[in-house]
Specification:
Layout lengths: L1 H21 L16 H8 L1 H4 L33 H10 L14 H11 L1 H17 L4
């Protein structure tokens, strides 16, 4: 019973946090609250809740998902030693083939990037590029 209650609280907190991350009171996206030059900051703010701070898919919200989040530390190893940059760009912009949370978009990135594209496509690309650069640092050898 306590476990179910704690899971409900976690899901509620995650929902509120994701709602805040997607927009604020003046209608702008909260992605502007992170710098476009820091892939690590963007990852911590928008990805770590599911994928974990270490990228292994063990974030605090992972248990609430239908399927476990991808272990981002083995992307290169699972792709014959090559980091799958094009695939990652596609997932960030258009969603995953096998969504673990019920929709094809990443819970936070999809709506934020969708709104940013109409505002400033260069900033969107800068953010994606810097996030990918940070994800490359998480790869296991």
């Amino acid at each position: 019973m306590l476990k179910r209650f704690l899971l409900s609280v976690l899901v509620a907190a995650l929902s509120v946090g994701m709602g805040y991350a997607q927009s604020n009171t003046n209608g702008t996206t909260a992605v502007n609250k992170t710098t476009a030059t820091s892939g690590k900051q963007m990852y911590i703010n928008y990805c770590a809740s599911c994928h974990g701070v270490d990228g292994r898919g063990n974030g605090p919200a992972a248990a609430a998902l239908k399927m476990p989040p991808t272990d981002l530390t083995v992307l290169s190893r699972n792709n014959h030693g090559e980091f799958p940059e094009t695939h990652i760009v596609t997932v960030l912009q258009y969603g995953a083939e096998f969504p673990s949370h019920g929709s094809v978009e990443m819970p936070v990135w999809g709506p934020i990037f969708g709104k940013m594209e109409t505002v400033n496509p260069q900033v969107k690309q800068l953010r994606i590029s810097n996030l990918i650069r940070y994800l490359k640092t998480l790869q296991v050898k």
